Amino acid sequence: MAETTASLTDELQRLRQxxxxxxxxLDETNQGVLALYAELDTQADQLRQxxxxxxxxxxxxxxxxxTPLGSILSITSLLADELDGPLSAEQHTQVGFIRxxxxxxxxxxxxxxxxxxxxxxxxxxxxxxxxxxxxxSALRGMFRPIVDASSIDLIFEEPIGLPKxxxxxxxxAQILRNFISNALKFTAHGEVRVxxxxxxxxxxxxxxxxxxxxxxxxxxSNLFEDFSQIDSPLQKRLRGTGLGxxxxxxxxxxLGGRVGVESTPGVGxxxxxxxxxxxxxxxxxxx
Length: 287
Hints:
Elements: H1 2-80, H2 89-119, E1 128-130, H3 132-148, E2 153-156, E3 165-167, H4 169-185, E4 191-199, E5 203-210, H5 233-237, H6 244-254, E6 258-264, E7 268-276
Helix pairs in contact: 1-2, 3-4, 4-6
């Protein structure tokens, strides 16, 4: 009996020691987990601060660039109008180069400013009812000077039978302007075709087809990332920020939609955006 009692006592003592060791190990593990959480919180805070600083820097620099760029464009307009005296043909050409470069730089600055606003959460959506005929008409007029000076046909398919949209027409127009501008830049000959068609009951797809060089399938997944550019001779000649398509993706998401691309090298590309007919679940106007 005494031996059994002693044996039980020894067993209890051993179990108590194991429990104490396990408790100590758990305490150390908990302290390690708490330290890890604290480190992750610190790193997350540092990332937020870095992101905020980047957005503020981009916004500040974009605003600072706009003033001198506006001055350059104003001066080139005065020179081109020959208000201070006639220019030779070569001088007109050089002034045209300066104006074109300043406009491209202004577009880059605008892209950077939009990116900064999105990342800072300062982009607002202003939905309203509008007709797609009006949207296509405005885009057609905007690109007419470019198309008239090139050999590319820009075709807008009439959106017959499609309802009015309730969304931010300015953000949608910016997406389509970017798609069309890229298509015109990277299409040497043929046409760029803009269309709209209903997808199911609640969505519509706007597509921009071109007969350009096309894009290999392995590059499609990166096209809508920040600062992404295609490595091609034409891309190297027509440099940009690589932000246009990224902004299109972000604007589409703000409108409750998505973007995509279908492309075959040597045949052409189709960039599209699919958005709800009515943002935020509003009613669809079928009139």
